[in-house]
Specification:
Elements: E1 3-4, E2 18-19, H1 23-40, E3 51-52, E4 75-80, E5 90-93, H2 98-110, E6 113-118, H3 127-130, E7 134-144, E8 157-172, E9 181-186, H4 195-215, H5 224-230, H6 233-243, H7 248-255, H8 260-312, H9 318-327, H10 333-348, H11 354-368, H12 381-391, H13 396-412, E10 419-423, H14 430-440, E11 445-449, H15 457-460, H16 473-481, E12 487-491, H17 504-511, E13 520-522, E14 527-529, E15 535-540, H18 548-552, E16 555-558, H19 564-582, E17 591-592, H20 594-604, H21 611-630, E18 637-638, H22 640-647, E19 665-672, E20 675-687, E21 692-695, H23 700-715, H24 724-728, E22 730-735, H25 749-761, E23 769-771, E24 774-775, E25 781-782, H26 787-797, E26 801-805, H27 809-813, H28 817-820, E27 824-828, H29 831-838
Parallel strand pairs: 4-6, 10-15, 10-16, 11-12, 12-15, 17-18, 19-23, 21-22, 23-26, 26-27
Antiparallel strand pairs: 1-2, 1-3, 4-9, 5-8, 6-7, 7-8, 8-9, 13-14, 19-20, 20-22, 24-25
Helix pairs in contact: 4-6, 4-8, 5-6, 7-8, 9-10, 10-11, 12-13, 12-14, 19-20, 19-21, 20-21, 20-22, 23-25, 25-29
Length: about 850
């Protein structure tokens, strides 16, 4: 048998060597080839490396002869670094070195077929690892010189006519040498797509391809439509692969596919992805160009305006204006040096640059601050009391505390001001008190809301490195008031939040500390500013959410809710006149009787303040405004009877005392955020095993009070003329009505004890009696809070007697006589005293 096998490198005369081999010699050569392939990284020797004459047609090397099959032979390899070759079309390919150019010219002269493969891995040293195993066999036809004016060092291009796609069996030689050869086998494409279907694919691809050329601005590049008119369908498809904007890796992956349908789908999909990306990039480019044109236009207009102003002599030079304003400031040496340094920095910027505008704004804000400029601190002390009484009814304790602070400020005769914190429920006038204090002291008024603030920079300011940086709210408020000693209300200080941007309450520690705020550092100013002259008044609904260090820096003034009588006076003196003006009525055109206001308060509001009362008054006046506009008659005096017809059905029902016809029912007193209320404690006893049942949506503290009450009575059954066994054989059930409302707190301790004792003994409770107080396991009665609100609620409900802890007597003494008139108080020390006073 005769075999053809490549021995050694490709000879200079390009002749094939033929030898006669017996089977033993053939096996030996195959083993050597297998060892060489294993060293190169391949696993085995393909059976296509050796062919018999029965399987191969002999092909003579002649110029441009059609290649029908690729024999096993040494074929020169031309490596492309950034491109691929395709079959069936002429293509101009780059040449990368003089050595490669010499190889190309030799192959052209000898009409030698070559295989062109792309380099896929630039870091690999072995050709098997660095080069693709798919290439194209064809002929190098000629070289084409490039334009030397554009690139004098450019090498010519090689004109290649691809004939057939092949698969490389193995490479022989060095990667970077021109003596690189390959053994290849035919790798034809399986045509599984009819011509008419192929044309549809290509026509659909044509639109995407041509659109990409337009977006990428390649007007001289041949379009897909022109190629379809000039080339056969397969040649047109190869042209699209060769010239398309798909990257090298994707092109190589497509050439690895066996069937035409796979190649069409993969290439079309990649073109669609590229078009989407190109459209997005084009939109970004257009937007960037538009923004750049607008910036250039603005800069050009600014320059023209500057030149026009200079020619007309209009306006003062900005930097000179800054210097003139700075001369009038009372700065210390450090502040003046800081300003001079910032002004010099401004002078270094071109007037049309964005940095100039940022720096100019900073210096303007710096100069707008009232450095050391304070309004007259000499105020009329008597006028303070007059203004507070004029604007706010009641709140005697609060006014007294404010007057004390004002008296201290008057005696000190300086601008140092206290830091107050007004704490109370919504609508009691905390914020308006600050405005009244500012008016009484004849100072500017500023209000800074802290509700929902969660960024520390809102107080300390933003550093100028950030786009849109600005001073903190404290500094901004001083710029608006143009004085260093305003009355500044820090509203809703208990509603400050915190997140990853910092905790604003910690920044307030410096603002509200008299020892530190004389040198408050704002990040935007980058200089210290004296805040010690500001009269800070913070407001809050609760102290629970205010940190202990912040509470420690403020004088806490508690503002309780208004009682009904105070609300009536506030309504008639302030709210009605205000709403008459707001709703288009003249002064005194409509009046509200006190009974009408009381009815609104009791049946349409449930609050500590007067905010909802004002809304109800406004609602009544709006109903009357409709009648007035229609020309109908409308009442000018609002009575209790008219309120119901104007406001509709009542929204609340005030708690009223219920008779003592039942044992085990006791009236207690409770404090809520909207004022005091009465509540009824019901207890029942049945035969059982001493079980205690609690209902009525009670909190943990209230449940503990019930357990204490029952345990105390078990341990001291003799005071009820009972035995412990009798109590242990009774199941006790305690219920507090209005189960949908959560209830908690220790102040119902004596009330629960009295209810259980009444149910166990069958003795009723005194009529019109209410009580409040905490108990201990030893039977002591402890004081509780909210006494004023509870007393007012008891009086409103028709209670005449109240049992309190003896330590609460001081709280009763501080309440005005008009609120306790008609009430009698029983002060107790132990539960035994409570039962003696309460049970009939």
């Amino acid at each position: 048998m005769q075999f053809r096998f490549p021995l050694g490198k490709y000879s200079n005369d390009m002749k094939k060597k033929q030898i006669e081999l017996n089977p033993e010699e053939l096996d030996k050569i195959i083993d050597e080839m297998t060892a060489r392939l294993a060293k190169a990284g391949r696993k085995s020797l393909s059976d296509t490396y050796v062919h018999t004459d029965d399987h191969l047609d002999s092909v003579e090397v002649k110029p441009m002869k059609k290649i029908t099959a690729v024999q096993m032979r040494n074929i020169p390899v031309v490596v492309l670094d950034d491109a691929i070759a395709v079959p069936d079309i002429h293509q101009q390919l780059p040449v990368y070195s003089e050595e490669q150019l010499n190889l190309v010219k030799k192959c052209i002269a000898d009409s030698t077929p070559v295989v062109i493969v792309p380099r896929m891995d630039r870091d690999a040293a072995s050709p098997d690892m660095a080069l693709s195993d798919i290439g194209v066999v064809g002929y190098l036809v000629d070289t084409v010189d490039q334009d030397k004016e554009i690139n004098p060092d450019a090498l010519p291009l090689m004109l290649f006519m691809g004939k057939q796609r092949v698969k490389v069996n193995f490479f022989m030689g060095d990667l970077d040498s021109t003596d690189l050869f390959a053994s290849v086998k035919s790798f034809p494409i399986k045509i599984d797509t009819p011509d008419d279907e192929l044309r549809v694919y290509l026509e659909e691809m044509q639109e995407v391809y041509d659109n990409l050329l337009k977006i990428n601005r390649l007007p001289d590049f041949p379009t897909m439509s022109s190629v379809l008119e000039s080339y056969p369908l397969m040649s047109a498809f190869y042209f699209a692969i060769f010239t398309g904007p798909v990257d090298l890796a994707h092109k190589d992956r497509i050439l690895h596919m066996r069937t035409l349908s796979e190649m069409l789908i993969a290439y079309g999909s990649e073109l669609h992805k590229l078009r989407k990306t190109a459209i997005i990039k084009e939109d970004i480019r257009k937007k960037a160009e538009q923004d750049l044109q607008e910036i250039n236009r603005d800069n050009f207009l600014r320059q023209q305006m500057s030149v026009i102003r200079d020619e007309l002599g209009e306006g003062m030079d900005e930097i000179e204006d800054f210097r003139r304003r700075a001369e009038a400031k009372k700065w210390d040496e450090a502040t003046r040096k800081h300003f001079d340094r910032e002004l010099m920095r401004l002078q270094r910027f071109p007037s049309n640059s964005p940095d100039y505008s940022i720096q100019s704004t900073y210096i303007d804000n710096f100069l707008s601050l009232p450095w050391g400029e304070c309004s007259d601190s000499d105020f009329d002390f008597n006028r303070v009391a007059e203004v507070l009484d004029r604007d706010h009814f009641g709140l005697e304790k609060v006014k007294e505390r404010i007057l004390e602070q004002m008296a201290v400020a008057k005696l000190r005769d300086d601008n140092k001001a206290p830091i107050l914190c007004l704490v109370g429920p919504p609508g009691v006038g905390k914020t308006s008190l600050g405005r009244s204090i500012a008016e009484a002291m004849e100072r500017e008024y500023a209000r800074v809301s802290f509700g929902g603030m969660h960024d520390e920079a809102e107080i300390r300011g933003h550093r100028r490195t950030y786009l849109g940086a600005m001073p903190g709210r404290i500094i901004s408020a001083l710029i608006k008031t143009s004085t260093s000693n305003p009355v500044m209300v820090l509203d809703e200080i208990d509603k400050i939040g915190k997140d990853f941007k910092g905790d604003p309450s910690t920044a307030l520690l410096e603002v509200l500390d008299p020892e530190q705020n004389s040198a408050f550092h704002d990040n935007y100013l980058d200089a210290d500013y004296d805040l010690s002259n500001i009269f800070f008044i913070a407001t809050a609904n609760s102290l629970d959410t205010i940190s202990a260090p912040l509470r420690d820096r403020m004088e806490i003034i508690a503002i309780p809710g208004y009682i009904t009588a105070e609300k009536i006076e506030i309504g008639s003196r302030h709210l009605v006149p205000k709403q008459l003006k707001a709703n288009g009525f003249t002064e005194n055109e409509i009046t509200f009787e006190h009974d009408a206001l009381e009815y609104i308060i009791d049946y349409y509001t449930r609050e500590s303040g007067v905010r909802r009362l004002e809304k109800m008054i406004a609602k009544v006046l709006r109903r009357l405004a409709v009648k007035k506009v229609r020309g109908e008659e409308y009442p000018t005096i609002i009575t209790r009877e008219l309120v119901g017809s104007l406001l509709g059905k009542t929204e609340f029902n005030p708690d009223m005392y219920e008779s003592n016809n039942f044992t085990g029912v006791v009236t207690g007193l409770a404090w809520t955020s909207v004022g005091g209320e009465i509540l009824f404690i019901e207890a029942s006893v049945t035969e059982g095993k001493g079980k205690l049942t609690l209902t009525g949506n009670l909190g943990d503290v209230m449940k503990e009070s019930a357990t204490l009450a029952l345990q105390y009575l078990r341990a001291n059954a003799s005071i009820l003329n009972l035995t412990t066994e009798q109590i242990d054989k009774s199941d006790v059930h305690i219920h507090v009505p209005e189960g949908a409302i959560p209830k908690d707190g220790p102040s119902a301790g004596i009330t629960m004890t009295t209810a259980i004792a009444s149910a166990l003994t069958g003795r009723k409770v005194k009529p019109r009696l209410a009580m409040t107080g905490e108990i201990t396991l030893r039977g002591k009665v402890l004081p509780v809070g909210g006494i004023k609100e509870k007393i007012i609620a008891a009086k409103r409900a028709g209670i005449t007697e109240i049992i309190l802890c003896r330590d609460n007597e001081k709280d009763i003494n501080e309440i005005a006589d008009r609120y306790v008139e008609g009430l009698s108080f029983h002060y107790v020390d132990t539960i035994s005293d409570v039962l003696t006073e309460a049970l009939l």
